[in-house]
Design a protein that fits this description.
The protein is α+β, with helices and mostly antiparallel strands. The protein has two domains: 7-47, Arc Repressor Mutant, subunit A; 59-140, Alpha-Beta Plaits. Helices cover 38% and strands 20% of the residues. It is built from five helices and four strands, in the order H-H-H-E-H-E-E-H-E. A hairpin with a 6-residue loop joins strand 2 and strand 3.
Length: 153
C-alpha cells in the first residue's frame, strides 16, 4: 500500500475535483514547482492509484435513463460460482456497478436502463437467465440525493 503524505492527499483531492486542472494551477495552489507535481501524478498512474480519467455525465440530462438497484442471491456461493457471476456481470453494459456483499444477498448491482419495460427485460431476461441465480430483489431510484466519485482521502 502506498503511503500518502499531505501533498499527495491535497493533489489527489484536486484531481478528483477536476482532472483537467493544469499542472501550473496545481503548482500555484500547492506552492511547489511543476516538476514534482508531474512526477507525483505519473507515480499515481504507475501505481494504479489513478485508474483512469473519465467524463462524468449528468443522468438528469440524458433522456430516458432510470436507475435500479438489484440485489442478487446465488444458489451456490462456491468461489468458482462467484467468479462465473463476476465474469458474466462484467460483460453486461446496463450494470454500472457491482458489489459482492456480506448479508442477506450476495451481490448488489446498480443498473441503468431506458425505462421500466427495459428493466423487466433486463432482470427477467438477462440476470435471471444467468446460471446459479437464486433470487433477485429490485428497487427503483425515485430521486438521486447524492452521487459522487470523490473518494475521501
Amino acid at each position: 500500500m502506498t503511503k500518502l503524505d499531505a501533498t499527495d492527499k491535497r493533489l489527489l483531492e484536486m484531481l478528483q475535483a477536476d482532472s483537467k486542472i493544469n499542472i501550473k494551477e496545481i503548482a500555484a495552489k500547492l506552492k511547489i514547482t511543476k516538476t514534482p507535481i508531474y512526477e507525483r501524478i505519473k507515480r499515481y498512474e504507475r501505481e494504479g492509484i489513478i485508474k483512469n480519467y473519465v467524463a462524468i455525465l449528468d443522468r438528469e440530462k440524458i433522456p430516458s435513463s432510470m436507475v435500479f438497484f438489484c440485489s442478487v442471491s446465488l444458489e451456490s456461493q462456491k468461489l468458482e460460482e462467484i467468479q462465473k457471476f463476476n465474469d458474466a456481470i462484467a460483460k453486461i453494459p446496463e450494470v454500472i456497478e457491482c458489489y459482492l456483499m456480506v448479508g442477506s444477498n450476495d451481490f448488489l448491482l446498480k443498473v441503468v436502463v431506458k425505462d421500466l419495460k427495459s428493466y423487466h427485460h433486463f432482470s427477467a431476461g438477462t440476470i435471471a437467465a444467468l446460471p446459479n441465480i437464486g433470487q433477485i430483489i429490485s428497487t427503483v431510484v425515485l430521486k438521486e440525493v447524492k452521487s459522487s466519485t470523490v473518494f475521501p482521502i
